[in-house]
């Protein structure tokens, strides 16, 4: 008798879990209409965020280096770090939030890690990252170029 009830409860939970993941997938397919620039770890970005002040509102820009990204689809978030008056400030932004007006990539950084938490311990010029070179679209093999 007890096993029948447990089996019934487990079946209902599985059905509900399947519906939730199905709805989340549909939301990600239809809701992810925003165009977000190609942002990678180490990029210097300007995040324009909408701030409401009573009945008025304005956009505030937060500039800094992307030190971490996590999540996927509509739940994707990025952590941006900058130095303000000698103090490090980090903010985490959800990329699909309606409060994010615009994201601009100002500079691309060349890094070899997925998370740049080591920048928290560095000060001044030690926090600089090398510039990542843009990839060119045309690639020609050296053998074909030398034959002609």
How many β-strand stretches? 7
Q: Which class do the helix and strand fractions yield?
A: alpha+beta
**Widest beta sheet: strand line-up:** 4-3-2-1-5
- Secondary-structure element string: HEEEEEEEH
Question: Which CATH class of the largest domain applies here?
Answer: Mainly Beta
Rg calc: 23 Å
Q: How many domains make up the 3D coordinates?
A: 2
Number of helices: 2
List low-pLDDT spans: none
SSE blueprint and pairings:
Elements: H1 2-31, E1 44-53, E2 56-70, E3 77-84, E4 87-94, E5 100-107, E6 109-110, E7 130-131, H2 142-147
Antiparallel strand pairs: 1-2, 1-5, 2-3, 3-4, 6-7
Summarize the structure.
The protein is an alpha+beta fold. The chain is 24% helix and 36% strand.
Can you characterise this structure?
By secondary structure, the protein is of the alpha+beta class. It folds into two domains: 1-31; 44-122, SH3 type barrels, CATH 2.30.30.790. 24% of the residues lie in helices and 36% in strands. It has two helices and seven strands. The chain has helices at residues 2-31, 142-147; strands at residues 44-53, 56-70, 77-84, 87-94, 100-107, 109-110, 130-131. The strands form two sheets. It has a five-stranded antiparallel beta sheet, with no helix packed on it. The radius of gyration is 23 Å and the shape is extended. The N and C termini lie far apart (83 Å).
């Amino acid at each position: 008798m007890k096993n029948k009830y447990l089996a019934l409860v487990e079946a209902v939970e599985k059905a509900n879990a399947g519906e939730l993941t199905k709805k989340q997938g549909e939301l990600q397919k239809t809701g992810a209409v925003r165009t977000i620039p190609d942002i990678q770890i180490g990029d210097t970005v300007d995040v324009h965020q909408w701030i409401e002040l009573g009945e008025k509102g304005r956009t505030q820009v937060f500039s800094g280096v992307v030190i971490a990204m996590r999540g996927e689809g509509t739940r994707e978030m990025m952590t941006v770090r900058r130095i303000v008056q000698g103090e490090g400030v980090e903010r985490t932004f959800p990329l699909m939030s309606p409060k994010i007006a615009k994201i601009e990539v100002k500079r691309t950084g060349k890094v070899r890690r997925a998370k740049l938490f080591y920048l928290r311990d560095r000060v001044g010029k030690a926090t600089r990252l090398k510039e990542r070179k843009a990839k060119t679209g045309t690639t020609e093999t050296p053998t074909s170029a030398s034959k002609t």
